[in-house]
Amino acid sequence: MAPTWEQIRGSNYGTMGRSVSGIVHRPEGTWQRVIHLPEATWRYEDESGQPTFLENPSASWSRDSDGTMIHTDKSDGTMFVAVGGGSPAALLRAYDAFPPRPGRGFDEQRFVEPSEPRPVSVRGRDGWEVTGRDQFSNEPVTYVFDAELGVALRWQQGQESLELEKPVLDGEFESALFEWDGPARSIEDEIAKMQRAQQERERAVAGIPQAVPLWLPTKINAQSTSGNPRTGELTLSIHGQSPQFNLRRWVTAIGETALEWPNDSTPERFRRSIGVWTYEIRSYQEMGPDDCARIVESIVAVDPPARDAEEIAAELAAEESDRQEAEVLATLGTGRSLRNHLMSESLLIRTDFSDDVAWRDTAVAAMAPVPQGDDTEFAAYLTCIDNRENDGMTVDGLLDAIGEPPPYYAFLVDAETMSNPEKPIICVHTGPDEPERPRGRTFRVVPSEMSSVENNLSIANMDFEDFANSADDDGVFRGFR
Fold this sequence. Notes:
Elements: H1 5-13, E1 20-25, E2 31-37, E3 41-45, E4 51-56, E5 59-63, E6 69-73, H2 89-92, E7 111-112, E8 118-122, E9 125-134, E10 139-146, E11 152-157, E12 160-169, E13 184-186, H3 187-206, E14 219-228, E15 233-241, E16 246-251, E17 268-274, E18 277-282, H4 289-297, H5 309-331, E19 347-350, H6 356-367, E20 370-371, E21 377-378, E22 383-385, H7 395-402, E23 409-413, H8 415-419, E24 425-429, E25 442-445, H9 450-458, H10 464-468, E26 476-477
Parallel strand pairs: 6-13, 19-22, 19-23, 25-26
Antiparallel strand pairs: 1-2, 1-12, 2-3, 3-4, 4-5, 5-6, 7-9, 8-9, 9-10, 10-11, 11-12, 14-15, 16-18, 17-18, 20-21, 23-24, 24-25
């Protein structure tokens, strides 16, 4: 018999004031070990066991992109804000979304209108799934609570999600785990650095000649303030109102750059090329094409950069190519050791080293976003393992290397994958041996369907056999017919 929401909530309340630790997984395939001691003590560790974030009641440290820790001393005037829903607190402190009593005289419940609980499994643990509404954002939110411990095993809101594996309550941890005695720089230095960079950007932008339109559509608003009906004398208070819009421009021969916030979400109203420039109007307000055309035509053009446009375009293309190449190389996992990544669910393991180009092409195709036809894309979030110690690894060898799950599935790129024009990748069930799902069962999947398989297996939305049983006669899954 399913428990009520009130019973599940009470079980989660039972985790308050207790230490909790576990492995927090993210949808892109990364994970981190997290330790939390209420109320404000945290430790995040990366896959190598190194701390990336530490917090205790008096200070915090966070690892910057260059590997250095950034140190912040807490004080009464210090405010810490978790931006977005990606904080492990969404799992380890789920009870903050539905406090047991109103605070400060008003209702602080974020998670409202809960559904009836239903049984599910998250990374091998039984739990109860409840979907409600976040009344702060008015979006649906789903939690899965561990049936034994009461801690949240899964949190999802929109495209963001987190899952907790191997949860442990009431562990004992030395205070030194939540402190850092290595090299660090202060948050004040970091803020000053960011301010200097921002000031430099502002100076650079201020030096660009502006092209300002000389005409704007104006709505005249008039209000009578005094007058005499007998003589017709009247005084009006008059002001004009023009639509608010953003005017973009770029040298047509160089090409348009990628949109940045906030323009990326502002509707485009008009675009026209005049001379060497292309102008674009974006606005949340409705603007007619005739008014937009007149605005653009009234612009007094400025001179473009003195350098040759083709030369600048070639530089930008080379920089973008270098950026994309660096991004690809970072995802290929060259040199990664399989034993250091066995907590990651979605592993893509190279077992054939005869063709580096074929490996790269296969991995890139497997992780490529797949358009869904409604302005959305799905992509497989894979942790690639490219290490010659796995050369010639078989399915049995993989199972021996993994031992006890997790992971519960893995993908292999073998000689058949490399040589076959379709690049079919092996998907292996590495979870417990079950009658309907024997350990070591395999099927192959073409790269274009990897997102479907990986996304659904990673959140246990579908079972391994759902895909294996839908493979074609040659054992390759090419999508549901």
